[in-house]
Specification:
- This protein is mostly beta strands.
- The chain has two domains: about 140 residues, OB fold (Dihydrolipoamide Acetyltransferase, E2P), CATH 2.40.50; about 80 residues, Immunoglobulin-like, CATH 2.60.40.
- Helices cover about 10% and strands about 45% of the residues.
- It contains three helices and 17 strands.
- The strands form four sheets. The protein has a five-stranded mixed barrel. It has a four-stranded antiparallel β-sheet with strand order 14-13-16-17. A three-stranded antiparallel β-sheet has the order 11-12-15, with no helix packed on it.
- Strand 13 and strand 14 form a beta hairpin.
- The protein is elongated and about 60 Å long.
């Protein structure tokens, strides 16, 4: 789920809830959903919520394309009531309702226990098991950015293992700790220089947490290992 960067304040575009739900009805330019699971917490299973999309005058995503009975996976926020002003003074929207946030991609595919879409890479089609999705959500949404250092670094998964890039501000000697989604330690190692290539731990799969440290800073990223 990816907001368009640099356009709106974070509280406009970061979802409060990531909801797996079933469409029950179309209501004007919105839908009623029965919640299966809220991966961010707060919404109960079987709760019925109304989620507004775009009436044609808002910078929201249209959501009327969903078929009745379809299962959706959406990032949503409490409704800002903008439709009551810009959609013909309709007054359909209420404070207890929800909406798709403005200008971005706030949905992923779901089928047979597998979540699909641009999970890590913009425009890509990547997959993850639903049982691992909650760990991914709670680690990668922008509201969790406090857990990361602002120091420049990047971590990616390649066919050869895990590639780590750091900038010249880092010390020469870095320590690397890799754990799985449950927090189990898989590997504790290190490398020298700005670029490190770490072999994937044996039998590593699913969500991995990679933490890079030197004497003054640290950086943590979550990757998907297959």
């Amino acid at each position: 789920m990816q907001p368009f960067p640099g356009t709106f304040p974070p509280d406009w575009v970061i979802p409060d809830h990531v909801v797996l739900g079933v469409k029950l009805a179309t209501v004007e330019y919105g839908v009623d959903l029965q919640v299966i699971q809220d991966f961010r917490g707060g919404l109960a299973a079987d709760e019925i919520i109304r989620v507004w999309g775009d009436c044609g005058f808002l910078c929201r995503t249209y959501n009327g394309w969903v078929e009745y009975g379809d299962t959706v996976l959406w990032g949503i926020k409490p409704c800002d009531l903008a439709g009551n002003m810009f959609c013909g003074a309709s007054q359909f929207e209420a404070p207890e309702h929800y909406q798709l946030p403005v200008c971005g991609i706030y949905w992923l595919g779901y089928s047979n226990g597998v979540v699909s879409g641009p999970l890590f890479t913009e425009g890509a089609s990547e997959t993850i098991e639903l049982e691992d999705f909650e760990a991914l959500v709670n680690g990668c949404l922008a509201t969790s950015i406090e857990a990361r250092s602002l120091t420049e670094a990047s971590v990616s998964c390649t066919s050869d293992g895990i590639l780590i890039r750091t900038t010249h501000e880092w010390s020469e000697n870095k320590q690397v700790c890799i754990t799985d989604a449950t927090g189990r330690l898989l590997l504790n190692t290190g490398f020298l220089g700005e670029l490190g290539s770490i072999p994937l731990p044996v039998h590593a799969a699913g969500i991995l947490m990679v933490t890079v440290r030197d004497e003054q800073r640290s950086f943590t990223a979550r990757i998907l290992a297959k």
